[in-house]
Amino acid sequence: MRKFKTESKKLLDLMINSIYTNREIFLRELISNASDAVDKLYFRSLTDDSVQINRADLAITIGFDEAARTVTVSDNGIGMSKDDLDKNLGTIAHSDSYEFKAAAKDVPGEQEGLDDQKAVDIIGQFGVGFYSAFMVGKKVRVVSRAYGSDEAWAWESDGIEGYTISEAERAEHGTDVVIYLKDDADEESYGEFATEYGLTDLVKRYSNYVRYPIQMEVTKSRMKPRPADAGDDYVPEFENYTEVETINSMVPIWKRKGAEVSQEEYNEFYKTDFHDFEDPARTITVHAEGTLNYDALLFVPSRAPFDLYTKEYKKGLALYSSNVLIMDKCEELVPDYFNFVRGVVDSADLTLNISRETLQHNGQLRAIARRLEKKVKADLAAMRDDDREAYEKFFEQFGRTLKFGVYTSYGMAKDTLADLLLFYSAKQKKMITLDEYLADAPADQESIFFAAGEGLEHLAKMPIVTTVLAKGYDVLLCTENVDEFCMMALGDYAKKDGDEERAFPLKNVGSEDLGLTTEEEKKEAAEATEENRELFDVMTEALGGRVEKVVVSTRLTDAPVVLTTEGAVSLQMAQMLKNAPGAEEAPKSQVVLEVNPKSPVFDTLKAAHEGGDDAKVKKYTEILFDQALLVEGLPIEDPIAFAQAVTELMK
């Protein structure tokens, strides 16, 4: 027995048990090695006239023996000599493919004859992928015959101390890798890999787009011929038979030219690979060449997955390198606010780590992610402008994600997302963008007004909303729990006018100062508040700290009172924070009770106070406060006490 040419026991144990985290990828690694071997032979045929190869004959074959518990991966590539086996398989982490790739860079005309793909698209780099076979195998036997040689050699090892090399027989050039599977244990089943379904599933999942045919003998069913003497009661009979079939697609749809692919083909690929029963709303293709070459095929779904807004949902794009799946969901390729985007990215230029399961340099991913983000943004903007009905359907499904993106990024993503947002216009009675809001605004408008609460009809009837509308200004009605947080994170929205840009603050109509009151009106309200100071002090005391103060309102026309707030925390936001985890530390809203001096109710309050009946003032104040809460769509503290107080007034 020959010893491995390293500190074998430690390093081989590292190869088998530490580098790879998913035992299923052993087949991916062996198929990738087989593809490299075929590539090397085909490249030699392009540079050496004595090598006559028909590319159509090049293939990879998978076989299995369920009874013997073996899996075999074969190729008719360049093969290995006795010395090659000793050097490539006996020296752990030696990569003949890497050396070949480096040497081939200087060969002229290397890109000819491979259907516009690089002639040297070698996958292996580290020389460790082969050893992943020992994750599932208790013994591995490799039989190989080098191209142009009459001799075949067998390398065999149990993956512990060393290996043997002996003479063998093989009809033609190429390599067979035979894995003798480990015995099944209580929590580990290895026999599943020696089955037609198990192998087909792994090929489809990890190696479906290897550019050479991957062939396997599969079982099929067919109807037996009807016997000549069969009667009317004959029941058709079926029989199973086997047939060699190519089980991989080879050419990925994302590398085909856009003009050659129909939307129906894109739709079918999306529904099949991403398990959706509806066609995508948008399809985005990217073919980038430059410092970093890659292809991407992205889809915007028509509907949100059921778990999109749960912790269990995992974003990401499928990441391929040279058509081989590296990661099923690479999270770094899409920002959280585009987490609904599905698709694939394929690049031969990625710097993979030794296991090819993750990347060594995230800078490459960041560069791709930035480009993809711009493409998605541009496509969504085009849908917004060119197909508004489709965009509104999209926004109904994924608008919350965009809003959360503004909020969770603390406004840093607002330049990307703000013009994609839609809100319901109380004035125009439809969903509009912030740009459309400003386009319809009066010339003297200085802010964008919004109201937050539950239900469009309820919000539209609120006194603080109708007052703003009466002044000729629109109000955006926000009914989702994230809306107000999104508006706070936005802060303002800039409208471009030629080379100039003007920022419009976003204001909740429930905030104390909307900037819609003249200085004269403010002065009159302040004087009226001071004149009624004693009355308002009694009312403030009656509410027991639930309001900061009671003042005369400048905004009310019909309603007797309204609740507004000082500071950033509105009534609706305070209510949401109250119901959230850690509510005891949540900030409180600074509530102001505004009284309409033109309402008959105000005259009643004044009369009661001047008549010395402060008990009546307090009771009326509590009723008015609870009424104002109900108008806001908020719960009152003591519904029973409120009902009793109203009943007493009706006696």
UniProtKB/TrEMBL annotation:
Domain of life of the source: Bacteria
Region (Disordered): 510-530
Compartmental location: Cytoplasm
Region (A) location: 1-356
Residue ranges of the region described as C: 576-651
Database matches in InterPro entries: HATPase_C_sf (IPR036890), Heat_shock_protein_90_CS (IPR019805), HSP90_C (IPR037196), Hsp90_fam (IPR001404), Hsp90_N (IPR020575), Ribosomal_Su5_D2-typ_SF (IPR020568)
Xref: CDD domains: HATPase_Hsp90-like
Record key words, sorted: ATP-binding, Chaperone, Cytoplasm, Nucleotide-binding, Stress response
Pfam families xref list: HATPase_c_3 (PF13589), HSP90 (PF00183)
Ranges of biased composition (kind: Basic and acidic residues): 519-530
Functional summary from the UniProt entry: Molecular chaperone. Has ATPase activity.
NCBIfam families, sorted: PRK05218.1
Subunit organization: Homodimer.
Family: Belongs to the heat shock protein 90 family.
Protein's name in the database: Chaperone protein HtpG
Organism: Adlercreutzia faecimuris
Gene designation per UniProt: htpG
